[in-house]
Amino acid sequence: MDMDETSKHALQEAITLAKSFKEQGKITILHVINREIAPDAVETTVDLESKLHEETNAYLTKVKNVVEKANLAVEIVALEGFAATKILDFEKKNPVDFIVIGHHNRKGLDRIVVGSVSKKIIHDAACPVIVVK
């Protein structure tokens, strides 16, 4: 999960779906920090590392609270690397019923640099994938 409106919509969809599983409904929020596209607004690598982890922890705490308010179990996972690869690795190593992911519809240079994470997940995931715009 990243920090934009599309992800917020995906979270709401995941909450709706998880509620349909009654007592067994659980959401795993997976956030991947991609250092290759992190902002250059910091002076040192240590500053970058600290800033990324601080922002990630604050954001994931807010997301966790949203899920808990919906009376659902929630697990928070933060990884570092390329988002599609890390999501697919997580799916292979953990019991995942389905993946809910936002689609950004990036264009131009942004699409070339970042690629389409949702497209790779749709193509390579073993479980069903729900894409939310």
UniProtKB/TrEMBL annotation:
Q: Which ranges form a coiled coil?
A: none
Range of residues in the leader sequence: none
Task: Write down a Pfam family by its short name.
Answer: Usp
- Could you tell me which residue ranges the UspA domain spans? 2-133
Q: Which InterPro entries match?
A: Rossmann-like_a/b/a_fold, Universal_stress_UspA, UspA
Q: Which family does it belong to?
A: Belongs to the universal stress protein A family.
Q: What is this protein called?
A: UspA domain-containing protein
